[in-house]
Design brief:
The complex is a heterodimer of chains A (111) and B (147). Chain A is an alpha+beta fold and 111 residues long. Chain A has a single domain (7-100), classed as Thiol Ester Dehydrase, Chain A, CATH 3.10.129.10. Helices cover 30% and strands 14% of the residues of chain A. Chain A has helices spanning 26-36, 46-51, 61-76; strands at residues 15-20, 84-88, 100-104. Chain A is elongated and about 55 Å long. In chain A, 23% of the residues are buried. By secondary structure, chain B is mostly beta strands. Helices cover 11% and strands 37% of the residues of chain B. Chain B has two helices and five strands; from the N terminus they run E-H-H-E-E-E-E. Chain B has a five-stranded antiparallel beta sheet, with no helix packed on it. The radius of gyration of chain B is 18 Å and the shape is elongated. Classes of the chains: A alpha+beta (111), B mainly beta (147). Chains A and B meet through helix 1, helix 3 and strand 2 of A and helix 1 and strand 2 of B. Strand 2 (84-88) of chain A pairs antiparallel with strand 2 (78-87) of chain B.
């Protein structure tokens, strides 16, 4: 993270300290299914996933966006409100995968 | 069958969603997000939010499981390509939000494998005074099925 940042001291191009998540587990996918209400068997049932041509279950894309949300909220800390938060889903994520979040300051403006 | 532009503007029935402490806790725990903004009242009071909030992706869980649009969508063709949350106000435990799903756009794009359709679905969430709190925007790729 950028520790104790103030807007005036941020510079465009500045990197934020990355965050490493522990490997995704199948138990976590079950927890996320329950909490989010997304019980698509593609995330829970290996047999079902194999039937539709996957090697096994894949993680909910929204779980991975949840990781990114955790990171964004850590950066915003107590100083800022997150008003707009967007993610494009680029690739599938599997149990055992370790997600690393990183960031940089792209632009600064006042409104 | 491709989707027709006439579906733009169609909405689901409005539903009321109550944000519960236990639900928010389970959601944050599944992600492994232990930010004190969701649990520590005095920490949250000193923040820009001036009180406890929910994780930023929590609105995705704000469905009661039977929200439906008055159109037939083929779920096998739908791929969640992009997700956006637009916050006008923070979402907090105890909120009773009036939610409605809406088709906000449909457009075509020429892709590698022919023409692709993109569907934009917004869930608008308003508080009890009718003020907009949050929009959860789902961008869906509506693929052609392999023949």
């Amino acid at each position: 993270m950028i520790k104790d940042w103030v807007l005036e001291e941020l510079v465009v191009g500045q990197k934020t300290e990355p965050m490493m998540k522990p490997p995704i587990t199948k138990v976590q996918l079950a927890q996320y299914a329950g909490a989010s209400g997304d019980f698509n068997p593609l995330h829970l049932d290996d047999e079902f996933a194999r039937k539709i041509g996957m090697d096994g279950v894949i993680a909910h894309g929204m779980l991975v966006m949840g990781f990114l949300g955790e990171y964004v909220m850590k950066i915003a800390a107590q100083q800022a409100r997150v008003v707009n938060f967007n993610m494009r889903f680029g690739n599938m994520t599997f149990p055992g995968d370790e997600i690393r979040c990183s960031g940089s300051v792209d632009s600064l403006h006042r409104s | 069958m491709d989707l027709d532009k006439s579906i733009i503007g169609l909405t689901s029935k409005e539903y009321v969603f109550e944000v519960e402490n236990r639900h928010v806790g389970q959601f944050a725990a599944a992600i492994g997000d232990n930010n004190p903004l969701y649990t520590d009242e005095s920490y949250a009071k000193q923040s820009a939010y001036e009180g406890l909030i929910v994780p930023p992706t929590f609105p995705i869980a704000m469905n009661n499981g039977d929200v439906e649009l008055p159109i037939d969508l083929d779920h096998r063709r739908m791929l969640h390509g992009e997700q956006e949350f637009i916050y006008h106000k923070p979402v907090r435990v105890g909120d009773r939000l009036h939610c409605q799903l809406k088709v906000s756009d449909l457009y075509d794009k020429e892709g590698k494998s022919g023409n692709m359709q993109f569907l934009k679905l917004d869930t608008e969430m308003k508080d009890e005074t009718g003020e907009l709190v949050c929009i959860s925007r789902m961008n869906i790729v509506y693929r052609s099925l392999a023949k």
